[in-house]
Amino acid sequence: MPVLYMNEFALIATYFKTLSERVLGARCDLGIGDDAALVTVPLGKQLAITADTLVSGVHFPADTVPFDIGYKALAVNLSDLAAMGARPAWFTLCLTLPQFSDPWLQGFCAGLETLMREIPVTLIGGDTTRGPLAITIQAMGLVDSGCALRRDGAKPGDDIFVSGCVGDAGVGLRLVTQNIAADKSILNTAQLRLNRPLPRNALGAALGAVASSCIDVSDGLLADLGHILNASGTGADIDVSAVPISPALLDPALVAPLNLVDGSPQGARRFALSAGDDYELCFTAHPDKRVQIMALAQQAGVSVTRFGTVTAQPGIFDLANGGVMLTPAGYSHF
Ligand code: ADP
Ligand code: MG
Fold first, then answer.
1. Are residues 205 and 262 in the same domain?
2. Shared domain check, 173 and 131
3. Beta-carbon count within 10 A of 320 CB
4. What total number of domains does the chain contain?
5. pTM of the entire structure?
6. Quick check: helix, strand or coil at residue 86?
């Protein structure tokens, strides 16, 4: 028998308190049930804090399955912690729901739980209200004091790297918004990466000791690299053709139905460089660290590719293409 109604307190106890007891990440001193949670930050660590809101119809289509909403709301926050070189410890969940729905809450919690088991993190509190569907998660992580990976640390001469490949989530979004059937496994993979990105937390935590700056790719690789360069007062020479892009964008037969403005191989590559939501890490490091970085990436189980060099001159220039200046076209809410 499905449960048809529950008040706020029963809802929190049934879905969220049990979830927080089922999956344990970092220890907390006092969790769900009091006016505030209590945690202890170990000596020698700093607390990294981030929050992200997902609004129905803005950040995900209104018909997105609850599992994917729960999964992604947490994933985007853990990705921010990865980009700071912090290990996820705790999170809070503020949920605004149009009405009580047991199947919806079960699916949502299953999405959260799947990722919490993959990347251990403890749910320690939140808020539950009624209104248009929106989810805000605040995630907290621990990083050795003074060792966080900031955006402002890139120095001229540093190498520029990206993890994994970019463009999959952009392809996935095209498939969803244009209602194209993803019957090929390569397209299915792209769509899965849109809905269930796996944040690069093992890599991010390992890079703390070696990278000079880092950001997670949420707006598009060029736009996010631009954020590092602006914060660091630097520019970059990059080799656009070296950037690993979504396998779906390398196959002309698959590119055609996606209706890219320019469906040529160069156009597909440009699309990958400005498509967001991949949650890869873009980071810089002194060239002395190359061997170490490749070893750390291998340990973390993710590929990393070097595709450029930080320069003193502002702007991003494509060396493989006669040195033309690239303008990042990322996403902005306003
Ligand atoms: P208050 O009125 O003091 O803000 P609430 O009734 O909002 O308390 O919350 C009761 C407890 O349940 C608090 O510990 C709060 O952190 C927790 N909580 C509320 N909503 C959620 C949620 N969506 N996920 C996790 N914990 C929650
Ligand atoms: Mg409250």
1. yes
2. no
3. 13
4. 2
5. 0.95
6. coil
Residue whose CA is at the smallest distance from ligand 1 atom 5: 127
Distance 251 CA to ligand 2 centre (A): 50
Asked if residue 153 is part of any domain, the answer here is no
Q: Are residues 98 and 196 in the same domain?
A: no
Cα of 132 vs centre of ligand 1, distance in Å, is 19
Residues 169 and 313 in one domain: yes
In a domain, 332, yes or no: no
Ligand 1 pocket residue status of 95, Cβ below 6 Å: yes
Q: Are 268 and 255 in contact (CB under 8 A)?
A: yes
Please work out whether the CB of residue 35 comes within 6 Å of at least one atom of ligand 1. Answer: yes
* 200 falls within a domain: yes
Tokens of 88: 């996820």
Of 12, 94, 104, 129, the residue with max ligand 1 atoms within 8 A of its CB, to mutate for a pocket test, comes to 12
Task: Report the CATH number that the domain containing residue 68 is assigned in CATH.
Answer: 3.30.1330.10
Q: Are residues 216 and 295 in the same domain?
A: yes
Q: Give me the sheet containing 316-318, strands edge to edge.
A: 213-216, 281-285, 159-163, 304-311, 235-238, 316-318, 324-326
Q: Tell me the pLDDT of the chain (334 aa) as tens digits.
A: 667 788 999 999 999 999 999 999 999 999 999 999 999 999 999 999 999 999 999 988 888 999 999 999 999 999 999 999 999 999 999 999 999 999 999 999 999 999 999 999 999 999 999 999 999 999 999 999 999 999 999 999 999 999 999 999 999 988 888 888 777 788 888 889 999 999 999 999 999 989 999 999 999 999 999 999 999 999 999 999 999 999 999 988 888 888 888 888 888 999 999 998 999 999 999 999 999 999 999 999 999 999 999 999 999 999 888 888 887 765 555 6
Q: CA dist 63 to 21, 45, 214, 278, 323, Å?
A: 29, 41, 34, 21, 44
User: With a 6 A CB cut-off, is 33 part of the ligand 1 pocket?
Assistant: yes
Answer whether 21 contacts ligand 1 (Cβ < 6 A): no
CB 127 near ligand 1, within 6 Å: yes
